[in-house]
Write the structure tokens for this entry.
Amino acid sequence: MDTPSPFPPGPSQHPLRQLIQYSLRPTQYLEACARYGETFTMRMSGFGTMVQFTRPDDIREVFRGDASVLHAGEGNALLSALVGTTSVLVLDDEPHRRQRKVMLPPLKGERMRTFFDAMQSEALRIVDYWTNTGLVRADKDMQTLTLRVILRATMGHESSDDFKELQENMSRLLDLVRHPLVLFAWNLFPLERYQNSRLLPFYIRRRKFDALLSKVIATRRTMAPNCNPECLLTDLLKMTHQDGTGMTDLELRDAIVTVLAAGHDTTALALAWAFEQILPQADVVRRIENELLEVCGDALPRPEHMASLEYLDAAIRESLRIRSIIPFIVRVLKDAFSVGGVTYPPGIVLCPSIYLLHMREDLYPQPTVFRPERFLERKFASHEWNPFGGGNRACLGQAFGLYEMKVVLATLFSLLRMERPRHAVSKPVRRGIFIGPHDGTPLRAVRRD
């Protein structure tokens, strides 16, 4: 029978110092903490007592736990400053199930694949730009690409003035949340107290974006159903909850911003890291190019080719393993819960550690070596490979993000020869709540003959 046990060991520094260390050197700090054991305790100001798990079996227990006992939304509460209070990211229990049910269908399966042309056309813009530019910073260009893709997927027409204004204002809003100390800022200036501030740039920019989005939603509500563009907003306007009611304007706003924020920066950073990992490996580049030639011939990749690009898919998954965009996920305990034979009390935050799990030698031999073949040799379960989280809170946009990465990389590798500057080393740093390359992954590209 499980009995209450002291917390696992961990660093003893003041919680404020732990937060600063993690904010400034995230992966290095987690690696240092891992010396305390496979399970360890961190205490960071504003986030309470956090028990980090790195064993696959322990992570599986957390993922399978009762969602009413393990609250992910409560653990993500600070994100409401950006995504809003009705976002699927910050809700728990029935409100979470209600929102997830209406948001999931448009982001998976064949409906998601209708966005192929948007993804490829934006990649072709990058081909034209990179061909004539010399040294470029991949993360910035991928941010532009993925923002335009997700805006087209969520809002529709790219040629409208509304689209251009939304792109500009969302880009500026997200720039404000990429600072490594954004967690400090949201702790000091919470949404419920400062959302109407006339001094804080973030809240000023948020209100401007919300006003633009509100105008678009109002216009779309008055349009005949057959006149609305094919996009996520149109899908959500048609959705109804179990009681037959449609989504409110606030729910629509928060759903759209959630998809824009979560489906934009994560994919952009993942693409930047993919270039960082793939380009220095001549054998990997050669296999990707040969696979594209075998599957697509001399033509551009098309939707029917995507499933056959198995090695490219493996390279993407291996890059996501080595370069975790989100280092760990959180579950706030609402009742006692046992993991690995240890019972933890309510109020504790359980944290499956994505980064440290992906660096386990017993699961991934030579874990720092980039070897896509791992994902061709075996299939990893969600408690062994989980860059998008797991359990009932797995990222809604996982399929969309993986598909977009595949379309973009297939298109770029089909048309360009890319290389990193000699001796370039990209180090992981905090980008808001995510982890990105400190130098943005510089590279050069020339068009293929």
About this structure: Residues 41 and 71 are 19 Å apart (CA to CA). The two ends are 68 Å apart (CA to CA).
